[in-house]
Each structure stands twice: as structure tokens, then as C-alpha cells.
Amino acid sequence: MEQVSAGQGTPVALGLEDFAVGQIYESGTLTVDAADIKGFAARFDPQPFHLDEIAARGSFFGGLAASGWHTAALTMRLLVTGGLPIKGGMIGAGVELAWSRPVRPGDTLRVVSEVIEVRPSRSKPDRGFVTVQSRTLNQKDEAVQEMTSRVMVFRRG
Amino acid sequence: MEQVSAGQGTPVALGLEDFAVGQIYESGTLTVDAADIKGFAARFDPQPFHLDEIAARGSFFGGLAASGWHTAALTMRLLVTGGLPIKGGMIGAGVELAWSRPVRPGDTLRVVSEVIEVRPSRSKPDRGFVTVQSRTLNQKDEAVQEMTSRVMVFRRG
Q1: Measured between beta carbons, which residues in chain A are less than 8 angstroms from residue B73?
Q2: Cβ separation of A47 and B96 shorter than 8 Å?
């Protein structure tokens, strides 16, 4: 099971009026082991390079690598548990994702998010959309995933 | 645990030369229950509307809904197990995702993929990139997720 440490995110839940372009939010950390990688893959992405060290060695990845969807799910966990504390929860409308580097057994991940757009809804005055660029980094500060997501955020007021 | 039935995809593994714009590939099916939804959420997306029926009723979703990342992971499972049989495995370079409708307990999902671009690599003659639009549909043929992915594919030859 992934080991998790608490985030440094503000404990309060943020409303639309709290967001501004350029803000940076940083999550806690989480360490993944080979059993986590294989367990996720067996259920959701059963390909040899995510399931077996020997098979992975001869593959494109040159060794056991987490499924990109596992990396994405772990990123969500880090965002939801302190990385981006949004009032009423984190409800994504759309996402762009790129996996820049594989996640390996023993990697410790964290997510650094930057607000790149804040836009009130035209039709619904109680909410808006915040666009966030979230980089998932390993313990060497190398990006393993780059994600841009458009998230629905309600006003606090 | 999700119930899965086999895909109708060709059993052979497809190389770059097998792909052409306009081709349609269809996966098998998979049925999700409330325990699956809560189990995934507890591990990767612990928000009340993915974890608890009562809390979900008063939320944006109006009832228990799967995490979008769970939908994405299930889509990958359907693609990898017959939905899009690629030689050497399915290695994604980048993805765009939108969740059009929540996945509910009891939903049966399948994935219909259309090839929208095939492009040989400029630098590496043994491979290329195929862009695929994959729609994840529920039992009423409603789209729950729309995904465009750019996948690396090796030549058969």
C-alpha cells in the first residue's frame, strides 16, 4: 500500500474567490512500491511491463514501470488530500495529460499545481472554472506527469 | 470486483501498418458495482460523493458516482484486454479526457475507438504514432468519457 505523508496545502477549503492566476499549491508525498505497481496493473492495465520485472526489462521501459493511469490516480490522491483543497470537492470537467517519464518502484511523488486561469461561470453566478497545471514530480524533482485540468469551483459566499 | 466479458477486437496484435484513419475498434464490456466505486475512491479519490451514498445524494452528482479516474482506468482495462490490440502493448504519449456523465453502480461499460490519425515517426523508422478517439459508453449508449490519445505503435515488419 502506498505510503502517504500529509500535504502542506491550506487546511481550509478554497472557494472561487480565493483563486488567482499564478498561485502555487504543493501536495504532500506518497511512495509507491513494486507491489502497488503490479496490483494496479493487474486490475486496470494488465501489460507485461507493468506486471513483471523480467518482462519489463526487455520492453520499451527497460524495467518495471507504473501504468500512466496509476500515476494519474496517485496524483488525484495527492491533490484531494491536501494538494488542492477546494470547497465542496474537486470536480474535473476536462483534463490533458502527458507522461514524461515512468514511475518506478520506490519513487516518492508529490504534485505542484499552478493556477493558470480563473473564470466565473456566465450562466451560474455561484460557481466558476479554475484551470490548473499540475506537475507530478519524483524524488529527483523530475516530472513524471504533466496535467492541465479544468475544475469546477463554487464560491465561498 | 468488476465483471468483465471478452472483447470483440481482433486477437492478433496490430502494427503501425495495420492502422488506417476511420477504423473502428470495439471492446468487451465490464460492469461496475458500488463496492468497486467506493474501493477505488478510498484509495485514490477519497471524496464523499465517490465514497458514500448518503453524502453523494446531497452533492453535485445527486448520488454515488465513480471517480473520473476510475472510469479512465476501467477504459484502459477494456482497451488493453481486446479493445485495441497493439503489438508490443499500448504505450500512451499524451491524452485528452472529458467526463460527460457520471458512472453509477451497476453500469456496464464498453469502449468504441476510432482511428483519427496515423503518423510514422520522422526519426525512428520502426514506429509511429496513432491518434485514437475512444468513447466510453454505458448500457444506454450514453458517453461517460471521451478520450483522445496519442499512442506509440511499432511496425509489424
Answers
A1: 40, 43-45, 69, 73
A2: no
